[in-house]
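Late entry, iron/sulfur cluster complex.
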Amino acid sequence: MLIIALLCVAAIQFLIAQRKNTISELEVRILHETAQAPADVVTAASPPKPQQPGSSSHKPPGETTASTVATGHEAAQAAAQEVFQDTRTNKGEAMFYQKMDDSRVKCDLCFRKCLIPDGKRGFCRNRENRAGTLFSVVYSKPSAVQVDPVEKEPQHHFLPGTQILCLGTAGCNYRCLHCQNWHLSQRSIEEINSYYDLTPEKVIATALERNIPTISFTYNDPISFYEYVYDIAKLAQENGLRILWHSNGSLNPEPLKELLKYTDAVTIDLKGFTDKFYREVSSAELAPVLDNLKTIKQSGVWLEIVNLVIPTYNDDPGDIRRMCAWIRDNLGPDVPVHFSRFGPTYRLAKLPPTPVATLETAYGIAREEGLNYVSLGNVPGHINNSTFCPTCGKRIIHRVHFNILANELTEGHCRFCGHPIPGVWE
Ligand code: SF4
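Prediction complete; structure with ligand written out below:
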């Protein structure tokens, strides 16, 4: 019996040992594959870096990049992340950031100036630190592509009645409680898990093939996909296309000025006129937006402003008056201002829509403060969808919602009295 028992114990030990060996071999094989195969992918995906102006991170040619020295598990992680990169052009490296002494990077693109640890992303969910190099994970990966009328941006003095090719991605550097596009802007690209593979060259070709004169960046904030916007804008200029972007206007001065070189028109959301509103509703700041509005106006790029009027949040007539006076004094009376109607959505879904009377009050205040081109949005059919000549008072662009019914401009002048109407008309 004793011999049989000893034989049984030996057999069990042998089987356990075999099992350990099997697991161990499997682990070794997985580790080996993880260490080897992705390293090739990383090397293949690391062509020379794009030389984009303004980036403090760009190295001289030939200098070793972080990804080429990554090995083992780090390389596997990097390779997995390359799924969201354009591996052909590797143009996903971010512009405007600094490498810190530790492995963190500091993003200088917007007012937040995120300090991003290795392997993490910034507040916008789109800029990721990979071993000390900052990448845009949405480069060439728009999650929304659509053709819209330019009036939808809204832009009323920029090529009225024409189409725009619109692009948006995941992510945003704001957290607006009332975001209409929260399913895009308040998600990472992995959470959306749906995007087009659309290089800048393909975007330009699409616009040219379809005779669409303008490419627009909208839906989420173009700040959060800046490099994609920038590369498309440069190509657009070379191909005779126009560039428009709709933004919260919170870039830092240097990236703003760089992008304006390749921009034809900008729509800025001036979301309110108090720090409290910006802090509590958008998790943001008012001051950078006001500074940038002045910079855009001074640049000569065509500027229009939208103010979404939200009941009880930013509809105080005194604040609206102060905002209009600020626009008049700092940007001039000819910048078009759109008061837009709020509809219940996202985290403000329990609020009612803005009463039309509130919008009409805002319109009256803006005109009293001397603004020449004021209109109401999201109120289809309202008479103030249209544009009126500030001199003779005649309707010069008859608009119903996004549709142009009549355009009474002749070479940028009122057909009735000859008053010059500022804008981009051809
Ligand atoms: S662009 Fe994104 S990562 Fe950069 S500072 Fe702004 S929120 Fe942070």
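The domain at 144-414 is CATH 3.20.20.70 (TIM Barrel). Will revisit in the morning.
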